[in-house]
Design goal:
With 383 residues, the protein is an alpha/beta fold. The protein has two domains: 243 residues, Aspartate Aminotransferase, domain 2 (3-Layer(aba) Sandwich); 130 residues, Aspartate Aminotransferase, domain 1. Helices cover 37% and strands 16% of the residues. The protein is built from 13 helices and 14 strands. The strands form three sheets. A seven-stranded mixed β-sheet has the order 3-9-8-7-6-4-5, sandwiched between helices. Helix 4 links the parallel strand 4 and strand 5. Helix 3 packs across helix 8 and helix 5 packs parallel to helix 6. The longest helix has 19 residues. The radius of gyration is 21 Å and the shape is globular.
Length: 383
């Protein structure tokens, strides 16, 4: 019988140290490794840019949790995504991505790969008829999905889009950062590649930056491995250790993130200062039924649009006490930010521009009564 998610989170890639019996494997900080004879590493490791025991442990764990063949860990989520695109793209290729994709990814696609001759289309993934029309006409090399999206919390039908993309020969990459494999496993729904900013929920404590790619195809995995090795945007051993430490509690943390976010969304959906709450756990969310089918819980991310526009948003951000005004997400502490002025400022004036009255909230695992009290007083101050 296959082991459960939480069991694998704790044990895959983690074996006690054979020398000392230490339950937690050591962090292998060595940059280089002894060879038995010239050209033959003693235990398979040669140089830490090429491979490292601590990084390998993390990669084995990630592949298991996402149900992939192989995983590769990088210095950031953008480094991981860049390695994948470098491995598969050539001049003349096309990428289809969502019209509310992460701004940093769009910036790279447009401003880094664009000059190489790679084109892109930003579309509404919720209309599968339109999705097929675009994919059929553009013949993309890659279809890039986020679900839930950042920061509009749109839910994309991974299985439906994957079937269409594969019909026309495209690879499907899913950014699973918001949901994590604890709540959603895109490969089981037909995706070819899963992307993570491990900085977020996988690390889970706002103390490490990293990224990862999980792949299902051995030939493509080898290409990504070569990019990782040759260009060297690797996660350090200590960063890999911190990420692995975070993953061990991922399942239980995501349960608490999800229950707290749902409670906040339900509590403030009808607040007088709130125009709309964007959270897939609400029955009012247009993607609620789809989210129920492809996610086990609805996650810890939510957004709000405020009645008072950008001024109300800025006021709210400076009046919370437990919700810290900061970019990023997925840590145990609650964060709040203004995407238009912060994380998504780079897409202002493009098809991906976000509403100016939108605030994004990364709901932490604090006591829910304390979070409700803090957000209530901040929202009440807007009236």
């Amino acid at each position: 019988m296959p082991q459960g998610f939480n069991t694998r989170s704790i044990h895959v890639g983690q074996t006690s140290d054979p020398t000392t019996g230490a339950v937690v494997p050591p962090i292998y900080l060595s940059s280089t490794f002894q060879q038995e004879v010239p050209g033959t590493p003693l235990n398979g490791f040669e140089y830490s840019r090429c491979d490292n025991p601590t990084r390998t442990s993390l990669q084995e764990n990630l592949a298991s949790l996402e149900g992939g063949l192989l995983a590769y860990s990088f210095a950031s989520g953008m480094a991981a995504e860049d390695a994948f695109f470098r491995a598969v793209l050539k001049p003349g290729d096309h990428i289809v991505l969502g019209n509310d994709a992460y701004g940093g990814s769009y910036r790279a696609i447009e401003q880094v790969y664009g000059p190489w001759g790679v084109t892109n289309s930003c579309i509404d993934f919720t209309d599968l008829t339109s999705v097929e029309e675009v994919i059929k006409s553009t013949k993309p090399r890659v279809v890039r999905i986020e679900t839930p999206t950042n920061p509009l919390m749109t839910i994309v039908d991974i299985e439906g889009v994957s079937k269409i993309a594969h019909k026309y020969g495209a690879l499907v990459l899913v950014d699973n950062t918001f949901a994590t494999p604890a709540l959603q496993r895109p490969i089981e729904l037909g995706a070819d590649v899963v992307l993570h900013s491990t900085t977020k929920y996988l690390g889970g404590h706002s103390d490490v930056v990293g990224g990862a790619i999980v792949l299902t195809d051995a030939e493509l995995a080898e290409k990504v491995a070569q990019i990782q090795n040759w260009l060297g945007a690797i996660s350090s051993p200590f960063d890999a250790y911190l990420t692995m430490r975070g993953i061990k509690t991922l399942g239980v943390r995501m349960e608490r993130h999800s229950s707290n976010a749902l409670a906040l969304a339900e509590r403030f959906e009808n607040h007088a200062a709130v125009e709309r709450v964007l959270y897939p756990g609400l029955t009012s969310h247009p993607g609620h039924d789809l989210a129920k089918r492809q996610m086990s819980l609805f996650g810890g991310m939510m957004s709000m649009q405020l009645v008072g526009g950008v001024k109300a948003a800025e006021s709210l951000l400076t009046n919370t006490k437990l919700f810290t005004l900061a970019p990023s997400l997925g840590g145990v502490e609650s964060l709040i930010e203004h995407p238009g002025l912060m994380t998504h400022h780079s897409v202002e004036g493009t098809a991906l521009e976000v509403p100016s009255n939108l605030v994004r909230i990364s709901v932490g695992i604090e006591d829910i009564d304390d979070l409700i009290e803090d957000l209530a007083q901040a929202l009440d101050s807007l009236l």
